[in-house]
Structures are given as C-alpha cells and as structure tokens.
Amino acid sequence: MTETLPDDLRADVQTLWDYHDMRHEPRPADVGIGLGSHDLGVATHTADLFHAGMFPLIVFTGANAPTTVARFPRGEAVHYREHALALGVPDAVILVEPAARNTGENITFTRRLLESREVGSVVLISRPYQQRRAYATCKKLWPEVDVVCASRPLPLDDYVESIGDVDRVINMLVGDTQRIAVYAERGFAIPQEVPDTVTDAYDRLVQAGFTERLIY
C-alpha cells in the first residue's frame, strides 16, 4: 500500500483534486447533510460545522458499499452518528438515514426524511473529491434547495496521509471525474463543465491503470 503520491502522477492528481473542490464559502443553512463513505472525516467536519453554528440539524445518510462494509459494519450513517456524538454533538439534533447506497439515494432519501420540515438551504458535507458530483446530483434531484458543499479543508497530501492509501484516493478521484459526465448524460445530475486540462489528466491516470472505480 502506497501512502505518498508518486512524483510522476502528482500534477494530474492535483488537477482532478482541484476540479472537484467547489470552493464554496461556508454559510449558515437549515440542515447539514453528511454523505456516507469510507471517510470518517466527513462526520468529523460535520460536527465541526455544527459546533461553529452553521446549522441546527444534521442528517447522516448512508448504508454500505463494498468499500465500507468492513469498516462500518452497522452502516455508514450509524457510525457517523456515533462519531459525532463522541465529538459532543447532541443526539437530539442528529437524524439517521440508513438506507442510501449511492449519492442519488443520499439526496432523495434525505429529502424524504425532511419532508415535514421547512428546508430552504443545506450544507452537503462529503469527501473532498465528491463535492462536485454531490452538488450536481443535489441540483438535479432537489433543485429548489440552496446548496453549499463542504469538506475537511485538507491539502491533497494531508488527505492522502489521513486515508493511508494513495491508490484508493486516485482511483476514487478518477471514478468521480468520469461520473461527472456520465451521470449528467444519464439524467442523474446536472451537467458540469469539464476543462480540457481535467480531461487530459483523467485520460493519463486511466492509462496509468487507475481504473478500479470506472463504471465501464
């Protein structure tokens, strides 16, 4: 398992990393939505934003994926909740959506969970490289809500170190980049501009063998 970025891949990985960062400024919202994944840092940052007064209510959403079942056997959202409680978030402000198995379901099932509440704005908290896909999905499936994206503010190298597996991070970055175009074509998300520099970096990383998270 490699834990540091190889020099010959660094520029292309950084290009994709920068592309997926929506660079949204945090602002107060009605709800913070922590999107389930293998990255417990999502729950950490959700707790941080709650303590900073960014939102009064949290929804953790996520069942399991093949990449998370070993780490979070009771489900991503359940483990996120437990982590947030350990960080001092009151149980009364946390809702758990334990069934979603992809980002579309994260948004759809969370929206359904919140139907009885007046929700005009949300903060989507995700892995850094999931921001753009989460934003595009939310704008497609919940277009009337004002959405801001957020992730732990870590530089690329620090994030790779926190995960401890550079190949996993690169494969995820490549997979999420592919999904920006493919999911828009399939009607799962709104279209996003993909600069040529991003397409070129993506192509080189695919040619280098980072294909584990590709849809086809």
Question: Overview of this structure, please?
Answer:
With 216 residues, this protein is α/β, with parallel strands linked by helices. The chain has 2 domains: 7-19 and 155-207, no CATH class; 23-150, Rossmann fold, CATH 3.40.50.620. It has 8 helices and 5 strands; from the N terminus they run αβαβαβαβαβααα. It has helices at 7-20, 41-51, 76-86, 103-113, 131-141, 156-163, 166-185, 196-207, and strands at 31-35, 58-61, 94-97, 121-125, 146-150. The chain has a 5-stranded parallel β-sheet with strand order 3-2-1-4-5, with helices on both faces. Strand 1 (31-35), helix 2 and strand 2 form a beta-alpha-beta unit. Helix 1 (7-20) packs across helix 8 (196-207). It is globular and about 50 Å long. It starts with 6 loop residues before the first helix and ends in a 9-residue tail after the last helix. The model has no long low-confidence stretch (mean pLDDT 95).
